[in-house]
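User: Hey, my collaborator sent me this sequence without any context and asked if I could get a structure. I don't really work with proteins. Can you help?
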Amino acid sequence: MDNIMKCTPLGEQKSLWLRKTLLIMKFFVLFLLLGTIPCWAGVAYSQNVKMSLDMENTTVHDVINAIEKKGEFYFTYNLNQINVNRKVSIKVENKTINQILDQLFSKSGIDYKIENRHIVLYKQAASEVEAVKQQKSINGIVADEQGEPIIGASVLEKGTTNGTITDLDGRFTLSIGKGTELIVSYVGYTTKTVKIGNQSTIKIVLIEDTKTLDEVVVIGYGTQKKSDVSGSVTSVSGDKLSKIPTANAEMALQGMAPGLSVNFGSGAAGSSATLQVRGVTSWKDDDGENSESNGPLVIIDGVPGNMSYLNPEDIKSISVLKDAATAAIYGSRSAAGVILIETHRGTMNSAPKITFSGYWGLSAVPKRLEVCNSAEFIKVRKMALINAGTDESRWPKYISEYERDPSQFADTDWQKEYYQRGFTQKYNIGYTAGSANSNVSLSAFYSKTDGVTIATGDEKFGFRLNSDVTRGKFKMGESVSYSRWSADLESNSGFSSIYQVTNMEPLAFLYDENNDGGYGGAISGMGMSDAGNQVAFNKLIDNTSSNDYIAASGYLQYEPIKGLIVKFNASRNMYFGKSRLFKPTYEIGAAKRNTMASLSESRSQTTNDLLELTANYDKTIAEKHNLSLLLGLSQEENKYEDLSASGSDFENNSMSLMGHAKSNYSVGGTKTRSALRSLFGRVNYNYMMRYMIMASFRYDGSSRFAKGNKWGFFPSVSLGWNIANEPFWENLKETVSMFKFRLSYGALGNQNIGLYRYIPTLSYNNHALNYPFDGRETSMGYAITAFPSSDIKWETTVYKNIGVDISLWNNKLELSAEAYIKNTSDMLSSRNISLATGYNSSILVNDGKLRTTGFEMQAIYHGKAGGLKYDLDLNLSHYKSVLKSMANPDYLYEYGALRTYVGGEIGEFWVYQTAGIFQNQAEVDEWNTAHGYKDQNGNWQPLQPVAKPGDIRFIDQNGDGMLDTNDRVKVGSGTPKVSLGFNINLAYKDFDLVANFYGDFGAKRYNYTKYQLERMDHVFNYGKNALNAWTPENPDTDIPRAVSGDPNKNSRTSTRFVENGDYLRLNNLQIGYNLPVKYCKKMGLSNLRIYVGATRLFTITNYKGYDPSTGSSVGQMGYDYAAIPLSRDFMMGLKFGF
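Assistant: No problem. I've predicted the 3D structure and written it out in structure-token form, which is a compact way to encode the shape of the chain:
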């Protein structure tokens, strides 16, 4: 009791530390807000407030008084300088204070400055007055090709910083010099330059931009024009992701980028996706797989982060770096690819804007498996017992009792009771603003999703603050975010929840008020088995988890000379994890009892600190040579610690705190620390956008390796040639605007080997380490049980990539294709060592090799037909990963029907091959006469000695006369041959439609659920297929006979359970309506969009299991281990701004 009570203050201390950290973060955010308010508060008020004035032949003083009364402004001026008795006439309607003051003091020699509500009037210098006399006021409207006003378009006087933005009507007023030019721009439209003559009013029409060559993509530590990229990068805009309603940013990415695999192991509450870039990168034989080594590095606003905690609405763009040329700048962390994420930031000289979006929906599983009801279960069970020759006196009592009186049993549809129709909701609110030298973006979100299974669900909320301030040659800014995730998770007795739900006997009752807990199960005295009442487990067991994520980063940037930018960046990311599992006492039927309550709790904290210093120099020489140089230093430190405790034997189920436990105490904890220090650089050069070369390197030093192996050097180079910019291509330019070849080569490292592999580690609390010191008792001891692997070094992946990019017909059609090879060497592999060393273990060496090959293609078409605009995006990808060598040439990793071995593909299905069903005893005898072997006594041993008519015939592949694991054959892989994404965006007048398809082709799936429902060696429920089992009267079936105990092992791992895993799914469908601007204006809004949609609306597949897309981890791809399927969701939502 004392030991466990000591644990409680530790947990409180951790919680107190978290509260203190959150409090510090709150003050930090408050400080940042207070620091940035002066930069944009004036803009926030002065540009939001509009007023109307109609005053004839009055004084400036009277106008000032009117403004102060209407707009809560107050003026300061020197009466000796400002003639407020000057007669004026002014008539304005719904104008900003800037527009009113410009008109009031036009050509008067008076200027003004606005700080929030404070307006200072002052006399211009003589030179300024002369400049004012040379100016004129221009009024205009900016519209699109359909005549709709464009809100927020930038209007800038060429060669100056004098500018404004259009209002809700697309109108603007600007004082400009005579004979000047205006530059008008807006996102998604081509920038237009207009020369102003004598006119005082003007209408400017912007044309939608279909040109993508000058699109800027994010690369490591910078940006680059898409036309200049010579490496492999795929970009996805945040606008596309925002049309996919989800609280999970990873889920929105599926099918959006070729080469990026987004897989889901389960649809259960709290489940996350598995991301892979271009297949498998590493294989660790000591744990079967290493997800850390095969998952891409995620960088959010320049800092390593976690996409699971990111609000999709905050994303501005995502770039996927897929080859060494683009990823090498991140060195040892980037062997499996890099995902760069930019979040929304405010823009300079932009009016304050508030946006809100929300959606609401219902979710449910798309299908349920067909299982037997009570009467059908009794029928199959009887048939199995009869075929097994079991004497009726040994039959379970429930069979005769059911036939005598079925009313004493239930007929429970366990899937119906277990699955629920969940409600989901999500809300986002954002604010952006910008002044001449600063900008700010602030957002917050909340989401709550009910799980598709009873008593489960998760909840998320968080906020993000981004701001930037420019002062002369200095620029500084920060990003601060906080998010929290909490979930009520699945609870079960140790088996898969789906296994228990589908296999639970329908005879059992869901509820039983006589049981402890009130739930039913196997009926006492009836001889019933009990797979488990999963509804009861979910309801009674408290299984919760939560994570808090805090990320804070800031930068200071200095430009000492034109083109040279020196930047310092510092960040800290913190994760706080918490879990609780309380199993109360309960009695769920005759077979499921828990007589002693137990509790397990854990707390964890991860801290990632990063300091970076970079210098970037950009120079254009003679308008032909474009040069960009980057040099940087980086220092990263990662710390982790956790604390866990468990106990049992509580006084009652209401007393469920750890301090209430009375026995079986256990306390554990871990603390680790690692660091990475790096020097990196890059040279980027292109000549007239024809010839491109990019070379980069990273020199990483990691604490995970022993002295002498800590440092690794990872270089890369890429070349590009855009033939379309050659002089001889000029006549083809209108048809083919870009024809670019790309070639890249480079090496990347991998430090994910574990933290202390090179240090001898001690073991404790091992019964083999008991030492008898006094002849009567044994004392626990410490001993070095693992041989240190001090010589292990960096795992290295060498990439080779070749690609081509083509743009046709003024970039309406964009085509790209590329092929790649990545060879991973020096992978960790176990080698056995002699027992003479004193170690009963193996040693890790760098002997493993892996080879992944693949190709990708993408076609994007931007089109118009009348009033219809459309974008079509089709992408295809393929990869194959083969294990080339390990320290043990006979290495074999098995997971059920899956195998990974030297020379084979990662995750192949190896199963017994079936050859139909024996129809009569003559076929059995003939088969066993032809197949078998003679034992040492010369006696014939048939291949299937206990086979009977109705049993499955299995093939002896090696002809040794025995059926064993050597007779398994390869029947495919869980890795698809081709993955497809097809994305459609349509817009017609005020309506729009988005459809996102995704599919996998050429993959196999092992249907473990089918195995459970058709096997005869258990006594639980069956699938309805079992009703079609072989009988002499029903010979035309592929379901073997029902026989208790399954003597012929018909349910062994075989081709019977391997199915075609091809599928094509409509992942997302959304239809929206955008309210015309003129109606939005009447409501005080700048825009309003409402929509209805559905996710996973349909799936085209022949797969008989729940979901062909589950089973996603490396080495276990395609193994459908009775996972909860992904939900189908119907929802409606809206988005508006003002």
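In plain terms: The two ends are 60 Å apart (CA to CA). You can pass these tokens on to your collaborator as they are.
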